[in-house]
Design a protein that fits this description.
Four Helix Bundle (Hemerythrin (Met), subunit A); DUF423 domain-containing protein; 77% helix; transmembrane; 128 residues; elongated; DUF423
Length: 128
């Protein structure tokens, strides 16, 4: 499981760098400053959670089942939160119907919060 967490963190981090460069260099020709700032929020949160996954992989005191729960919440949260931001910001240039995913950003954010909450509660319950 830890290898999977590290690999996912590396992939999410690499993708965040690619998307950040894409936004900074290519999208600035088509998007407003506000839209670029919003796109950057998606990139930033994606990168934060790449590091979150790396941290998670270092924990030896968390049960495998709990690791899997936190991992699933974080990955689903990144996909929904950051992914929906990318799609919503670029909706003028794609055939994607943004009405379908308007709920995805807050749901993704909620899943990210839950991932952190499960980690917090798990560590809090441990007796040091």
């Amino acid at each position: 499981m830890k290898r999977k967490i590290v690999l996912t963190g590396a992939f999410i981090g690499m993708l965040a760098i690619i998307l950040g460069a894409f936004g900074a260099h290519l999208l600035k020709k088509w998007l407003s400053v506000e839209q670029l700032n919003t796109f950057e929020v998606g990139v930033r949160y994606q990168m934060y959670h790449a590091f979150f996954l790396f941290f998670l992989s270092t924990r030896k005191d968390i049960a495998e089942k709990t690791l899997k729960t936190i991992y699933n919440l974080a990955v689903a949260g990144v996909v929904l939160f950051s992914g929906s931001i990318y799609l919503l910001v670029t909706k003028e240039y794609t055939v994607f119907d943004s009405k379908i995913i308007v709920f995805a950003t807050p749901l993704g954010g909620f899943l990210l919060i839950l991932a952190w909450l499960v980690l917090f509660a798990t560590i809090l319950r441990k007796k040091s």
